[in-house]
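Listing S7. Sequence submitted for prediction.
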Amino acid sequence: MFFNEVLAVIGFFIFLRDPVFYRKGDYIYNNVISIILIFFFYALISLFFFNNLYGYLRNTVLLYSTFSFFLGTRLYSAMSKARKYDPIFMSAIYPINRIGYLALIPIYLCKYSKRFSIYSFLIIVLGLVGIRFFISGSTSVAVAILLLFISLIFKKTKVFMFFIAVGFVIWFFFYLQPHLTTFMTKGKSSAVHESVILQMDGNSTTRFFMWSHLIFDFFPENVFGIGFGTPMIKKQFLYKLNMNKVANKDPWIEYTLGAHNSFITIFIRCGVLGIIAFIFLYWRIIGEFANDRANDNYSKVFFFYYAFFIVTGIAMLNVILESPMYAAGYWIVLGMLYEVKKK
């Protein structure tokens, strides 16, 4: 029940053994420390205006789970020493039926492959697509598309691909805006009827309405975030989404429900300060990814790059970083990537 918290506590004590707050030229480490300090700042100032104590404590998962990053740096060393058929290592990949374990596909391949190759990439992508047919759910396919997009990023194309990604996001939200207006005035069925995209997948449609509502109706008045322990998605909005069971099941749903996109949740709760820290983190990681491809396209580090991109894709479509169940997994994978890059 408190597995995520146990991992975070272990990571916290690992950090306390060597509490360094800045390392020259160490962009991943310094970004993680920056994110911890930003979350700590919001946790601190939220004490003066939070509306619900339980909601406040639930929102602090953003802060304390970050320390799992330091545990991830140690887990890489432990995994590298494990034998190929070690039962402890094998047990980590068996729960593949849960979407949160998708990142273990490249990590598993790393243990049994001497070098990363095009075949490794194809196995990862086909594995994600295969999960869609055997387990259902659109997340794995969306993550596979994200990996295909990232695979087109090279040293000479990274700026161009960045503008394509930003342009697509801007276009997508402005595409959703009139449909959000229809949704708020005439209801969900009328809004969905107007758009082919909104008719493709029911779960995705619900996410899209959540995202556009938070971006257009919430963010303009809360540029620096709403903090922790404050309501984010009101029950009235959930009723309009036909999420009555979800809204009525949890009395604190307005404080605990994420946007089903962890980065939008961070954007709303911590404002521009919170999201800028992640933008810098990804800008540098993707830049290093492109540089490493130019230097050695077959290095084992790419297994961990793609593992991190997978958990990123999952976090873009699910409640991950703000979840007391899954947040540690994101930071552990980042910690493993950080450590393997150092090696």
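Caption to Listing S7: primary sequence and predicted structure tokens for the chain studied. The CA atoms of residues 75 and 81 lie 10 Å apart. Residues 93-97 have pLDDT under 50 and may be disordered.
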